[in-house]
Amino acid sequence: MNDRAEARPACWKWPLPTAEPGPGPEAGTGQDDLTAEAAEDLREILADDPEERDRALLVAWQGGRCAICNRRRELVDDHDHATGLLRGLLCSSCNTIEGRSTQPIFVRYRERPPTAILQLRIRYWNMYTLSYAEPSTPPITAASAQEALDRLVIPAADETV
Ligand SMILES: [Zn+2]
């Protein structure tokens, strides 16, 4: 019982990546398989596109592990419907439960998911609509604030008589 109340998402226990990318847990089987040319192409793509770089960092940091249960399984993108941004990579089991669960481990995960820990910003790509997810609550801008204020203006007294 206490274990469940105290449960922390697995990603809270993972060491933060170091500034210099070092050999990962599977060193010798990953990057080394790339040809020098392919590795150079990858570096260029990542340098040109901050979002691709952020995604590559997230994938590398998670290392195939679910951010909640730590199991090495096929992972899916989990995103925040309010922002349209990725939270992290989850196994399909955790992803299914996460959306509805009020268990502490899932609440904690939503409060501080991998993208928050690593300070990454990655839009969620919806493979069914072939577009990025839109935030369900659009950000407040100066223009939208003014529009909201304009709607609040009460008609002058002579207009209502
Ligand atoms: Zn999981």
From TrEMBL:
Ranges for region Disordered: 1-33
Pfam families tied to this protein: Endonuclease_7
InterPro entries: Endonuclease_7, Endonuclease_7_sf, His-Me_finger_sf
Domain of life where this protein originates: Bacteria
Keywords: Endonuclease, Hydrolase, Nuclease
Gene Ontology terms for molecular function: endonuclease activity
Name the record gives this protein: Recombination endonuclease VII
